[in-house]
Amino acid sequence: MNQSAQTLASPDMFRPPINRAMRSLDRAFFRKDVYLAAACVLDSKQIATCRKELHSDILKLERLPPIRSVPPNISADKNSKCLLLKPDTQIEDKSSWSPKLHNLVESQQVLLTPFHLQLDYNYWTYHDIISAILPENEQDEIPVGFSVVGHVAHLNLRDQYLPYKTLIASVLMDKNPTIRTVINKIDDVGEENEFRTFKYEVLAGPDDMNVEVKEQDCIFNFDYSKVYWNSRLGTEHHRLVSKFKPGEAVCDVMAGVGPFALPAAKKKVWVWANDLNPESHKSLVANANRNKVNQFVRPSCEDGHSFIRSSSSQLLNSKRQITSRPKVSRTARTTENQKAFRQVPGETLKEPNIFSHYILNLPASALTFLPSFIGLYNGHDRLFYPHVAVKLPMIHVYCFSTKSDDNKAEEAKICGEISRQLGHEFKGTGDAEMEIWDVRDVAPQKRMFCASFRLPAEVAFRKMVPRTVDS
């Protein structure tokens, strides 16, 4: 059997060469010669027609265009092209030709010719290359999942892949042009740090953790090594912010760099945003200014327990308001239009005196902050329904639990813990305003949830000081 036939007979002909002893990435090693048959279209005006006729014969592989330049040994129109054919089409074996290919060859519209296709490192994907390097007994769970935060790829490699960490990082960075730094987490988030930061090692690229992230039409700049950010929560951020209405006031108790606060402020929601981490607070302030929502964001840096009570008390006496005038487009910025717009009365937005929502996004311990809501509005019951139309606020508290197919057991556990923390029995999602939202899986047997419920009147107006409940 000749070289061409041998190559065509191999099922691995488009896979990269294997080197399971490689420990330092050798990109030049990944080269392969593939020998195919090609149909040269002799008249360039017939390329589209021939391609349509040979639709079932043409080679179809991702990242591999089937239309190629005609080999130099073929005499054809200077604009002619050739069509790469599937590997089972062999020039010397007419029985491998389809009827349509037979017809085009017989009518001399196409000429079959050998085609030497050269594949190199740039052709294959991350998964292709890593599969060719890792030992066969480590192929079941090839590291493919990673978080991208700005230009940083964040891996969490299992122990068996640590000997290959530099290789993995190098290939990952090669195959993702926007990534300039690859890191590997070397402890659990929050394991040794109350600010939910983590220890890491740089596997590839510079140790540059100053990133820029875009989410919900906002730009966030921060030092990823000093603050908490999870790109996998983007959908959850959007889901919760969509519940807020313009003109409402929201208390974000563990605001971080502002993934809830800034998009809400863009909707003209008044946000009191707090974080205990001074670095998060600094980034929150800078990002509020950068996104031009600082008028609607009131940042704080204090303990969340005290912030719940202090912010609620201060808001009761707030007289803040903002007057905004219509924006003038660049095309309408004539002197007369400017004068006319100045005469249009601006929209005045007054900050309400009651929060409509509280966000507690600290899943590991947020439930233990709930006792701060006990007696929160003691003596202020006349500010709420049924005396006026204002309802008591919604609480959105994040937590971890186990996982099951229907989450029924987890819902019961979460409602039970909320009841214990507040000294008030919740019957679960059967209550009119109690929702347990499945956010995402965080580990094989661990899931993140968001419990949303309206603060019960019995809790809000209770005549007692906040109590501490052991977690």
Helix amount, in percent? Answer: 10-25%
Instruction: Determine the number of helices (DSSP H or I, runs of at least 4 residues).
Output: 12
Number of strands: 19
What would you call the shape? elongated
Uncertain segments: 1-9
**Describe the biggest sheet?**
7 strands, mixed
Radius of gyration: 31 Å
Q: Strands across the major sheet, in which order?
A: 13-12-11-16-17-19-18
Q: What fraction strand?
A: 15-25%
Mean pLDDT: 90
Based on helices, strands and strand pairing, what is the structural class?
alpha/beta
What separation lies between the terminal Cα atoms? 74 Å
Characterization of this structure:
Mean pLDDT is 90; it is low at 1-9. This protein has helices spanning 3-9, 47-53, 99-106, 126-133, 165-175, 234-241, 261-266, 278-290, 304-316, 335-343, 408-422, 457-460; strands at residues 31-41, 67-69, 81-84, 110-120, 147-149, 152-155, 181-185, 200-204, 210-215, 218-223, 249-252, 270-274, 297-300, 321-324, 347-350, 357-360, 394-401, 434-443, 446-454. The radius of gyration is 31 Å and the shape is elongated. The chain contains 12 helices and 19 strands. The protein has 471 residues and is an alpha/beta fold.
